[in-house]
Amino acid sequence: MVPFPRTARMPHRTIHLFRKGLRLHDNPTLLAALESSETIYPVYVLDRRFLTSAMHIGALRWHFLLQSLEDLHKNLSHLGSRLLVIQGEYECVLREHVQKWNITQVTLDAEMEPFYKEMEANIRRLGAELGFEVLSRVGHSLYDTKRILDLNGGNPPLTYKRFLHVLSLLGDPEVPVRNLIAEDFQRCGSPDPGLAECYQVPLPMDLEIPLQSLSPWRGGETEGLRRLEQHLTDQAKHHSLPPVSLQGQLLWREFFYTVASATQNFTQMAGNPICLQIRWYEDAERLHKWKTAQTGFPWIDAIMTQLHQEGWIHHLARHAVACFLTRGDLWISWEEGMKVFEELLLDADYSINAGNWMWLSASAFFHCYTRIFCPVRFGKRTDPEGQYIRKYLPVLKNFPSKYIYEPWTASEEEQRQAGCIIGRDYPFPMVNHKEASDRNLQLMRRVREEQRGTAQLTRDDADDPMEMKRDCSEENRAKEKVARMME
């Protein structure tokens, strides 16, 4: 049954669709829904096909998502409401429940990823068919990226310096909206309590997700706010400044969101106007060794082991393994690494993941391609005693510190004493780093000479002091931050 259209003065019966923003804090769309509704149904549509195809969610991310949904449900319950998790395909779920609940409005956060944009367009089309209104507000970024694009002539700013200039014209971002209170939900009226029994947050076993794939990092708004408060307390002691401070990292996040929102094929090389077109090697065996922590370089393998076990690695560690896979050693496409991170990282993000992989492979944004992370020296500077390696690669834990980054240089007797024979218990290095990096450096120089001026790339950012400060600061502060890698 198609509901009767309502006048603007009459309150709505609303489905609020949670998508990425699984939170109550600073949620402008949900606040607008509450202020315009007589009844509100907080809904999360668990569309498994969409989540595994559009975002390639692995087991660790599934656990993190379910934890986040459970936390959201608890926080809604404290305010007298409840989260309804409905499993099924988005359009079918909405079509059924819009008619079942006589819905006149669907609210959702505006998102910039192509798959979320397509979803919103389909919901609007469904609204025109079934007679409900659609309301979306920007809530996942500091600014509305459309405003940034408009001020930059309709194009994304491709350097951080230009991006900061545009932000200076916009001024400060909007302040957070007020916190929601129980009276907001009491005024609207909550769904029938019986619905909560029908639409509970599923358990991992309900979705056949292996329980052993459980990260020590817990999902949910409650934990996120706790960690934010702790970070701000720590930052007050370190006196960090942009671009390495939290504020600076948020601006980098905004930068990548802005560029991704207006760049076709942002997550691939072909058809991407800002990305160098490079003939990367296709080598499934080498890619597999990198992904499964079998490169023979303990620093790299320890990082990839932590990624598999926890779904999180420090940003300097991300730099190291990304450079190793691409322009540093293996000359394998950044797209392959991006897919692995998308599957395994708890905080994988369409814009930031692809943007950083293009950056670290020197395919876009970053042009000082002669800077290559050494898979031995970089780790040694960061953690001279190799405690990180000993934690994540226990097979190497008994090697003396002078060998822990290069165990193949130990004598056969020293290897026996350490209880690990290289080539049997742990692999030899899969490449000679110096030879591979020298060769790749020449390949990258040739690529850039061939394509100079063909892509929408400039050298402004290479001369940008903010860029130089970012790189230098990260390396100089590595020792200070390594403790967080060990948490």
Describe it for me?
Helix 1 links the parallel strand 1 (12-17) and strand 2. This protein has 22 helices and 5 strands. Mean pLDDT is 89; it is low at 1-8 and 457-487. It folds into 3 domains: 1-140, HUPs (Rossmann fold); 141-176 and 224-263, Alpha Horseshoe (Serine Threonine Protein Phosphatase 5, Tetratricopeptide repeat); 284-486, DNA Cyclobutane Dipyrimidine Photolyase, subunit A, domain 3 (Orthogonal Bundle). It is of the alpha/beta class. A 5-stranded parallel sheet has the order 3-2-1-4-5, sandwiched between helices.
Helix and strand succession?
A: EHEHHEHEHEHHHHHHHHHHHHHHHHH
**Arrangement of strands in the largest sheet:** 3-2-1-4-5
CATH topology of the largest domain: DNA Cyclobutane Dipyrimidine Photolyase, subunit A, domain 3
Structural class: alpha/beta
Write the layout of secondary structure elements.
Layout: E1 12-17, H1 28-35, E2 37-46, H2 48-54, H3 59-78, E3 84-87, H4 90-100, E4 105-110, H5 114-130, E5 133-138, H6 145-151, H7 160-170, H8 182-188, H9 193-198, H10 221-238, H11 246-261, H12 284-291, H13 298-310, H14 315-328, H15 334-344, H16 350-360, H17 377-382, H18 387-392, H19 412-418, H20 433-451, H21 465-476, H22 478-486
